[in-house]
Structures are given as structure tokens and as C-alpha cells.
């Protein structure tokens, strides 16, 4: 089921995990996980609560130590040279983790200084981030007095204070209203276009569609990995297409058909290997068989559906 | 870009800055740091009465040297309240045994004691006691009174009616007021309780609230965290020491013999010790509740074995061993000597060194066991 993408000789992966395992007593939170995240991509980690997403992320950031296996970030072993790795990672934990008794600006300045920024470089970076995330007018407000959305904006700004190469975000849009969610994702795209790598976990399947590649986790293991398109294909065994027609038509005689999902006298819902290449052939063959094809189109499958299928297979 | 070394060195400054801002904004801190010392000082000033138990080491100066005196010394021994360290022949030896701190008091039996007794004349015994330890002094005076009373009854039945009057004299200044002699105890309590419990929650609160997870994503080192917090809490709690001293001086008109600088130095050494202990508690506590419980527990142990309530000299060997492991014991001894006897820092250097060794051990353990991990 899993395909391991072997990196080419020159390519250094942004994140490379091998056999990554975390046990809490007898409970195995993460079970021999392999992960390849390429430079510059937006990689989504999905899965139900308790799947091991946060534990995986915490091992990548080094705030917990793996029981077995290793993680490398840009080729640097996190367990051995964490100090070096820290300069490359910006991290936004799932729970709001900034100081509620410090103001917005004090939090940003503190983290800027801890990351080694001083003087005008610090001042400019803080101002840039405050403006970028619409926090300038709230800069003197205590972080504890911010709304949920503002807290998330501050947390993201803080994660970016040292302009990291890899941004790791654990549920960044939880409790954030839809317009701001969209803004976040626009900003992630912007960072990707600057060559930054993003690792994000989310509950929202519609958001996950924006990722370049995804991994679905369940019970500490990755059960599916690939682009959103690939994942849907894997879940169904192909692409879903709809055909509406007049006359008689035996769907099993059509080329590339793997499964008939639904069938009525004038409509079929079919799974074909690849909608792009098979759909014209399907139409041609149907006409040859004497039916008149009215509509032939690929059907949009949501990631949610695909994931529910995968989860079902797991059971 | 600035040099790597400079950046490492500067990392502690933002931490100190952050901690102080947080401390100032926490009303609980303000209450503890500012009000606690004043409240405790006032309570002590108005309401404290000391108690003691066990055998008190004293010396006897026998100027009489005859049967009457021997019988009195025997009576002192029989009372089981005194441990007679030595019997001298001159007043000077007796005084110096109290001045040097070897014993709490010296009892002087005058030359004419036996003669007065046999002739049925009123006579006296003189007790020179160390007033810098008022609870003990009080116990010794009572005990001497009881022994004298018993002795007098026996003597009266044998030689006829007369009186033996115990006379009491203080050493270390005739005007030591009660509150003054409580200042070392007061300082010990305030310099232990407030700083230890305040700092003991500092690291585990970060763990509990989740801020630790973000904090350790920066290149801070274990030593930055430990020394950053130590410095910030030191600056915040040094006012404790000053406030309690000032309250005592202003409210109760306390006159201390030691120089203010020496008292401040001894207090500083002990304050750093209390903070280091608190840090160690914080490193090992899972949450704030646990940390508070641990600091209260350590406070109780410290108070019990610091010689505040019961002088360490009269404790059992096992209890003495525990006391020797309690930094507060050394502080009380040192601060008492400096504030009440007017000793210099050099004269209490042994105690100060011992406290510093404890501090060093607490800090090294904290550095060793602080995990830069969540969970």
C-alpha cells in the first residue's frame, strides 16, 4: 500500500522520517512511520483524533523524543543536532502556547530576541508581522485578552518571526472563521511560492484539497499518501464518472470500467481507471453499442468520501 | 548579523525581561511579595511567645567550692533540664562560655553561699543568659527558678527559714527586646516561604499552560532558563528582605546591632538558596499544585529543624543530622550572630559557605534534570 519515494541524489528532503515510533507505556501512539516531505511543498497530515498527528509533529520539532527511528529536517538529525534544526523550523502548536500575560508585541519581540534578532532587524520584523497579520492596532493588548482568531494570527506571526524554511502547523485553523481560514491558506501559498516548506495538520477536508500532497494517518500509521487526486483514485480504485444515455447499454462492455456504483435505465455511475483517457473511449464504445450518450462527465469526489472509504477498509 | 557568541550571551536577557514582566502583572505575586512580609512581621511582633524543650547546655561558676554549692549543682543535674558542660572557678570563664555561644547560660554560685546557708542568711545565685535566643532564655530562667525553689525548701528544713534569690542578667546587651530577637526567625520564614513557593511553580506552570512547548522551539539552553528565572525572581523578591526589616524597624522600633550591609549580604545568600530550592522543585513537579505542596512541605521541615522552635543543640542525634541538612538552620545561626551580636561577615563565613554549597547543589541538580521536552 505504501510507496516510499526515494529521493534523488541531490535532493535533500525537508522532512525525512524513518521507522519513527513513539510508545507511551504500552500504547503505541506512532508506529514505524515513514515520511518524505519535499522542499517547497505544502504537505498535509490528516486523520481522526488520536491518530498520532500531534505526536508525529512533536517528534519532528524535537519537543518529544522518539522511542525508535529518526527524523531529519533538511538532512539534519533532530535528535543529534536540535539547535541547528530550530533555526530552520517555525512551529505553531495545536494549543495556544504564547504568554497570555504579555502583550501581542511583547510576545513577538521575546521570540524574535530568543531567535537572535536584535536592534532594527528585530523592530522591522516585528512591525512587518504585526501589519501582515492585522495585529498592529492590538499590539499593546495582552495576548490572553485576544479573540480566538487573533490568537491564531499571533501564533502564526510568532512561528514566522525568524523567517524559517519549514513551517510546521498543528491545526492552525481550528476555531478560525472561514474568511480568515481562506486568508491563512492564501498566505501558505505565498510562502510556498517563496520556496518555504509547510507541514500542516487539519480536520477540514476542504482545506486539505489545497495541499500538494497528503498523508492519512490512523492509529499511528500512514494508511494512504499522495496528491489529493491520487488519494481519491486509490480510495475508489479509479475515477468516478457519470453517463446519461438513451437506449440499452451494458456497462460491463465499456472499456476501463472497474465498478458500477449505481445504475438506472438511463444513468450509470461508474468507476473507471482514469477519467482523462478512458472517458472519450467510453462514449465511443457506448455509441457503437447503440446507445445515445447525453452526458458523460467525471464526478467530483470529496476527500472526505475518500477518507471514509480508507478508514472503512482499516476496520 | 551579529556574532554567535554574543547572541548566546544575550539570550538570558530577554528571559529575565519576560519573567519580570509576568511577575509584575500577576496580582498573586504582588500580594505575596509585598504583603506577606509585612503581615508576618506584624503577627510576630504582636503575638509570638516562644517555647522550648529538652536539656539546655549551661556552665556553672562555683566561687564557693563547698558542700552547699556541690549540693546545688547536684540539684541542677537531677532536674534533668540542664546539661552542665563545665564547672569553672572564675566568672570570666563563665562569661566567655556564653559569649562564644558554647552554652546558653552560665550560673554563678557566690563565694559566701555555703556560709550564708549554714547561718540561715538570705543568699542568691546569678544566672547570666544569652538573650539573643529568648525562648531558650525563658526556659532556662524558669528551670533555674524551680531548682532554686526546691533547694531552698530542703535547706530551710535543715538550717532554718531564709531565702535564696535567683538573679538574672542578660549578656549581649541589656536592652534586647523580644521582637529584636525574633528578627532572625522572621527573616528566615519570609526569605524561605515566599521565594521558594513563587519560583517553584515557574517552570511547571509553563508546562501546564503549554507555553513551554513554544519556548523550547527557540535556541534557549537549559542554563538560560535556570539562570534567567533565578535572576528575575531574585530581583523580584529581594524587596521581601528589605520590607520585613523596614517593617520591624519602623513599626516596632527594632534596634539591630549588625550593619545593614552585613545583614543584607547574609539575607542575599539565603534568598538565592531558597530560589534554587524552588527551581529544583519546579523542575521535578508535574503541575503547580504539586509544586506548591512540595514547597510547603519543605518549609515545614525547614522550620522544624532550623532551631527556631527547639534549639538544635538539644535535639537527638538523628534530628541533629536532619538539621545539619537544612540550610535555614545555618541562616538562622548566621543572621542571629550578625543582627543581634553584631558579628561581621567573616565570623559567619562557615555558615555562609555551607548555604552556598546547598545552593550550588540545588542549581546543579536543576540544570541536570530540566528536560527540554513536553509531557
What percent strand of chain B?
5-15%
- Total number of strands of chain A: 14
* CATH superfamily label of the largest domain in chain A: P-loop containing nucleotide triphosphate hydrolases
Count of extended strands of chain B = 5
CATH architecture of the largest domain in chain A: 3-Layer(aba) Sandwich
What's the overall geometry of chain B? elongated
Give me the secondary-structure category of chain B. alpha/beta
The total number of structural domains of chain B is: 2
Rg calculated over all Cα atoms of chain A: 24 Å
**Count of alpha and pi helical runs of chain A:** 10
Would you identify the regions of chain B where 5 or more consecutive residues have pLDDT less than 50?
48-53
Mean pLDDT rating of chain B: 84
H and E order of chain B: HHHEHEHEHEHEHHHHHHHHH
Q: Largest chain-chain contact?
A: A-B, 30 and 29 residues
Strand content of chain A: 25-35%
Instruction: Determine the fraction of residues in helical runs of chain A and give it as a percent range.
Output: 25-40%
Largest sheet geometry of chain B: 5 strands, mixed
Shape of chain A: elongated
Widest beta sheet: strand line-up of chain A = 6-7-8-3-9-10
Distance between the terminal alpha carbons of chain B, to the nearest Å? 35 Å
Distance from first to last alpha carbon of chain A: 16 Å
Task: Describe the model.
The complex is a heterodimer of chains A (315) and B (375). With 315 residues, chain A is of the alpha/beta class. Helices cover 34% and strands 28% of the residues of chain A. Chain A is built from ten helices and 14 strands. Chain A has helices at residues 53-61, 82-88, 104-114, 119-132, 148-159, 178-193, 205-208, 228-236, 275-288, 303-314; strands at residues 15-24, 27-37, 42-46, 68-73, 76-77, 89-92, 166-170, 197-202, 213-218, 221-226, 239-246, 257-263, 267-272, 292-298. Chain A has a six-stranded mixed beta sheet with strand order 6-7-8-3-9-10, with helices on both faces. Chain A has a four-stranded antiparallel beta sheet with strand order 2-1-4-5, with helices on one face. In chain A, helix 6 (178-193) links the parallel strand 7 and strand 8. Chain B is α/β, with parallel strands linked by helices and 375 residues long. Chain B has helices at residues 4-10, 12-25, 27-47, 67-78, 91-99, 113-119, 134-159, 178-200, 202-209, 211-215, 222-252, 260-284, 288-304, 317-324, 327-340, 349-369; strands spanning 56-62, 82-88, 105-109, 123-130, 164-171. Chain B has a five-stranded mixed beta sheet, with helices on both faces. In chain B, helix 3 packs parallel to helix 11, helix 8 packs antiparallel against helix 15 (327-340) and helix 11 (222-252) crosses helix 12 (260-284). Chain B is elongated and about 90 Å long. At the A-B interface, helix 2 and helix 3 of A face helix 2 and helix 10 of B.
